[in-house]
Amino acid sequence: MSFLFGKRKTPAELLRENKRMLDKSIREIERERQGLQAQEKKLIVEIKKSAKQGQMGAVRVMAKDLIRTRHQIEKFYKLKSQLQGVALRIQTLKSTQAMGEAMKGVTKAMGQMNRQMNLPSLQRIMQEFERQNERMELTSEVMGDAIDDAMEGEEEEEETEELVNQVLDEIGIDINQELVNAPSAAVSAPATKTKVPQAEGTGNEDSGIDEDLQARLDNLRKM
């Protein structure tokens, strides 16, 4: 009987046709709404002009027309929103159907792969892979140990130096500043020591030296 009434359309084709019809209706509604908005702007200009001229009767008539125009614009907004909701549901149905077809194809392909798969051969491949992987891990471990042994001393030295610097930072000591100040301290120390012989020599030559200072020098000489 299909040859009498034509080919029966699939659900996907019906959804596609309805979606096109809805999109066309939405575009027509949008054009009508834009035309009403342009008319609204013109009415506002005419109302202001008539009010300035004192034509209050015309103002009242155009005000009623403006109210009806705005109500019509609001209706077009609502109608467009409703049609967009229907179009969205149709698109969702199309996506769901497409997903179902895709899943059907994937399921069929997975079944074919499972039938073609040689399980004993796959098991042998996995066993060989595990053996080779164990060998590779063992080789990597031996090489890693050798490298660690070679670099252990250097790493320990770097770690020790880093730890020392960290401790010095925590207690507020700048080791670089200490190294800069060290030579000046070493030079100033002998200078203080040389003052004693000079004082001693001047004590022997100067007859007017203080007696207390002379007594201290005598004690130092005995030591």
TrEMBL record:
Residues 213-223 have a biased composition (Basic and acidic residues). Residues 183-196 have a biased composition (Low complexity). Gene3D superfamilies: 6.10.140.1230. InterPro entries: Snf7_fam. Residues 183-223 are annotated as: Disordered. Residues 12-46, 119-170 form a coiled coil. One of its GO terms (biological process) is vacuolar transport. Keywords: Coiled coil. PANTHER family: CHARGED MULTIVESICULAR BODY PROTEIN. This is Uncharacterized protein. It comes from Nepenthes gracilis.
